[in-house]
Each structure stands twice: as C-alpha cells, then as structure tokens.
C-alpha cells in the first residue's frame, strides 16, 4: 500500500528518484509526480498482492501455511517442535498490566504517531517555509520525522499507562522490554544494509542491466526490469535500495527505447519488483518485523510467505510481457485479477485434497 498511495513518505522518496532520473537524462515533458501517478496502474504486483489478501482469507491456504494451519487445528501448536521464534513479545514484556485493556491504549498512540510523523515530514521538508505538500515530501528527512513520531507515541503511551495506575518503574521495565524485542530486528537490518552496500559498490544492478542492453526491446523492458528488481530486492532485502539502484538506469533506458509513453510502465515495474523483496527476503526489515510480532520462526515465516508472493509475481510478469498486445493497464489488471482468483482457488483446493489424503493414509 505504501508504494502506491498518493501521499506518503514513500511517495516523496519515489518521486524524488523519478525527478533525478528525468533530470539526468534531460527528458523534456515529464512531470515526476504525474509520472508516478500514471505508474500506479502498472504496478501490477502491489495491486494484485492487495487483492490477494481477501481472496486468500475467503479461500483456502496452500503451501507451508496450509500445513501449519492444519497442525494448529489438530494439535493446538502454533509453532512446530524444534522451531526457534525470532522473538517473543510475551516473554520480553511479561503479562499485561490489565487483562482487559482499553481500546484507547491502541488508538491514541497510533493517532499520535501518524499525526506527528506527517507533520514532521511536512515541517522537515520545508513546509513551514511555504513549500507545497509534495515539494515538502520530496525534500523531507524521513528519519527525523519518524523519530519525532516515535517519541511522541511513546510519551502518550506512558501517560495513558500512568493514568490507568501503572507505576513508573513498570513503565520503564515495559519500555526496556520493548527495546529488547527490537534488538534482533536491528541486528538483521544492519547486516542487510551491509549486504546492500556491498552489492551496490560491486555494481551488481548496473552489471545485470548492462548485460541485457544488447538484446533488450521496448516490449521486454518492463518484464526484465520487474524480474531484475525482484532479484535485487530479494538479495539485498531493501525495496528503497532497489528503487535507488534501478530508477536512474531504467528510466533513461525506457525513454531511449519507447519515448515518454514507456516511462510510467517501467516505473511501475521498478516499484513492483522492489516490493517483492520486502515480502519474501529473509533480511528485509519488514519480513523481520513480521516474524517478531507474530512470534514465529523467521525462516518458517519466509517459507510460508514465498508461495503467496510468487502467485501475484508470476501473474504480474505475464502481464508485463503482454502489455504491447493489450496496451491497457486496466484491462490487463482485470485479466490478472480473474486469473489470480482462479489460481488461488485451485491451489487451495489441491492442497486441501493432498492433506486429506495424507491424513487418510495415516489413519489407515
């Protein structure tokens, strides 16, 4: 959602990448923000992933997740024997202060985080100096804004806890416990950044793109950019790093091969491929966070994610290959949504049948 929403810190970053690529290639007639808006319908992977969520919820699981769900139903074990959860919120934070918490303990800190962060994005980007919202987002310092939001959220949470009778010492212990919970994620993220820096310095992406330039065509470019983006984002674990690497290379190439009309399509393919790694890479910060707060074994989480991500990714790849035949992103999306619905249904039914047959054999 973050990569296709019209207003977010992600969009400011992505628009700034497009603007830099357009300027470096001296492309005339392309307004970066509108190029981004035009790329949204071409971000097939992100859109199909969002639609896959209700499809899977209303359908049946498949792959490792189906086996995990069946195990939980039959044995009550949420985590299989021999697994090592990346972290346990219950162990780090202990029992809740009150068994029945108030919904305001969730709502007020969250609203504070969003409000202060958005204000920080606007303010640190020069909004107070008269810049427009989009110009401010393009020039903002995301780390500063999110730090302000995090401190404000923590402060509001502590005030609520004190009002509800929680002692200051208990608040301190809970805060330190939360920091301990995040330490494994921070270590993995630092290591991921190191790998990302190494691959960037080695020129991995430039090599891959350069190696394909001799036989690349306008018809193949979106598909190849999407696949290369998937590879880089999975290997490095960073979607922003993948966008930073590919955008300056792919946008000028798109302009050379297909003029201005090809740029939004390629931009959509860049952002789509970059998001894939956030979903399935074991060193992605979002994957690590998901494992921590689900209390699951990290590799088990990655293994259950991969089949779900490969379905929309595979369909998106076919859609990129078909864009010169159909030409309309809306028509392609409709075809992709229908194909995804039936494919997920088929995979879920087939997995259920396999599990039932396996149980019948064990019973016999």
Quick overview of this protein structure:
The protein has 16 helices and no strands. It has helices at about 10-25, 30-40, 45-60, 65-75, 90-95, 105-125, 135-140, 140-165, 170-200, 205-210, 220-235, 240-280, 285-295, 300-320, 325, 330-364.
Summary tags:
mainly alpha; 16 helices; 364 residues; 0% strand; globular
Per DSSP, what share of the residues sits in E-state strands of 2 or more residues? under 5%
Please compute the radius of gyration using only Cα atoms. 23 Å
Q: Indicate the structural class.
A: mainly alpha
Order of helices and strands: HHHHHHHHHHHHHHHH
Q: What is the overall shape?
A: globular
Low-confidence runs (pLDDT<50, min 5 residues)?
A: none
The number of helical segments is 16
- End-to-end C-alpha gap: 47 Å
Topology, number of strands: 0
Helix fraction? over 70%
Mean model confidence by pLDDT: 81
Main β sheet profile: none
Sequence-ordered SSE layout with sheet pairings:
Layout: H1 9-24, H2 32-39, H3 44-58, H4 64-75, H5 89-93, H6 104-124, H7 133-139, H8 142-163, H9 168-202, H10 204-212, H11 221-236, H12 239-280, H13 285-294, H14 298-321, H15 323-326, H16 329-363
Helix pairs in contact: 1-2, 1-7, 1-12, 2-12, 3-14, 3-16, 6-7, 6-8, 9-13, 11-12, 11-14, 12-14, 14-16
Task: Explain what the structure shows.
The structure is a single chain. The protein is mostly helical. 77% of the residues lie in helices and 0% in strands. The protein is built from 16 helices and no strands. The mean pLDDT is 81.
